[in-house]
Amino acid sequence: MSESFLYQKIAEAVRQDILIGRLQLGDRLPSMRKMTEQWDCSPGTVQRAYRELVNQSLVSSRPGQGTRVVGGLSMEYETPMRRANLVHQAEAFLLEALAGGFAPAEVEQAVRHALDRWRAFPDEPSETTANVVRFVGSHDPAIALIAAHYPEIEPGYTLQLTFAGSRGGLIALAEGKADLAGCHLWDEESDTYNVPFVRHFLPSQEVALLTLAHRQVGLIIAPGNPIDLAGLGDLARAGVRFVNRQRGSGTRIWLDAQLRRMAIDPGDVSGYSEQKATHSEVARAIAEGQADAGIGVSAAALSFGLDFVPLTMERYDLVIPAVKWELPPIQALAQWLLEAQARSAIADLGGYDVAKTGSIAWIR
Q1: For residue 225, what is the DSSP state?
Q2: Would you tell me how many other CB atoms lie within 10 Å of the CB of residue 158?
Q3: Which uninterrupted H or E stretch holds 346?
Q4: What is the dihedral sign for C-alpha 148, 154, 155, 158?
Q5: Could you give the CA distance from residue 299 to residue 225 in angstroms, rounded to a whole number?
Q6: Distance between CA atoms of residues 20 and 123, nearest Å
Q7: How many other CB atoms sit within 10 Å of the CB of residue 124?
């Protein structure tokens, strides 16, 4: 990995530690020497990473005092100047990316992928907040697209995303910590999606299943398929490095069922225990050469310029309890999904069948 890219990885790792509370206000960051040993890089790379964190007002460096955490990634007090500064930083990043030959659409897509990673951290979903619709559930690029458009779908509202897997979404609904959940859980016994699991986690509740889309799932692989992977059976081959989704995700549940059917021991799949919380993170790991293959959606492969071996089409539903169904921002979303423009935007992500997008089925 080039050091011009590594400094970003170092800065991101520190930001993650601040986000999840591993580094608290006033804590001192590791010394330059320790970081250069940990990351096997030059002191200049660490300095560049720390300088980026200083520019983001997350840390402060003073002679004799080292580099310490001075800010957090979430601040209660908002000011116009702070918002303006954020736009300034975004424009600086955009100009740097454009100068590097990236198109605006690629930059926008990259920002969504980065946001998806933060949304996958296991933070406790917030309590009900005015003008905020709480989504908890399985990651999908189309969900991030909807969140970006939500102020247009229902002016004055935002869609708060927490990617916790399909099971995590249903549990959040049951505990009253979400307004809607994203789910694509395949039931091996009935060969159906979502209904058996909704009945299990939300018994005696009236629930709407609002179909987002049917999406293509398969193996995400390096461009040109250099090691000639054709299907799940190849994952047990010697030398093939795999990257998995996390337990509780619909993709992981489907994969485990297929491995059982094929009598493949997960222990024979190198990297089976390596888990990623989003499809984007799976694709990113492959793009960076950390793995040869991963399980995910076609849209994630396309967004990173990777190849894809299709394996199945699955239905992804938005699970909405009846008590939430009539809320204006929920009704606005249901109507938006029926619009041709919405369906076209989802289809353009790649690997989606939008014929049933916006259809509704009730579980009573």
Answers
A1: -
A2: 14
A3: helix 340-347
A4: negative
A5: 17
A6: 8
A7: 8
Averages of pLDDT over each 10 residues, the chain, 364 residues: 71 80 86 90 90 83 81 49 60 74 77 68 56 93 92 93 91 95 93 94 96 97 95 95 90 94 96 91 92 94 93 97 96 97 95 97 94
Taking the C-alpha atoms of residue 178 and residue 324, their distance in angstroms, rounded to an integer, is 10
Given a contact cutoff of 8 angstroms between Cβ atoms, the answer to whether 318 and 170 are in contact is no
Cβ proximity of 320 and 273 under 8 Å: no
**CA angle, 20 then 22 then 27, to 5°:** 130
Strands 360-363 and 275-276, bridge-based pairing: unpaired
Report pLDDT digits (tens) over 251-272. Answer: 999 999 999 999 999 999 999 9
Q: List, as one string, the DSSP characters of 111-143.
A: HHHHHHHHHTS-PPPPPP-TTEEEEEE---HHH
Which pTM value belongs to this model? 0.69
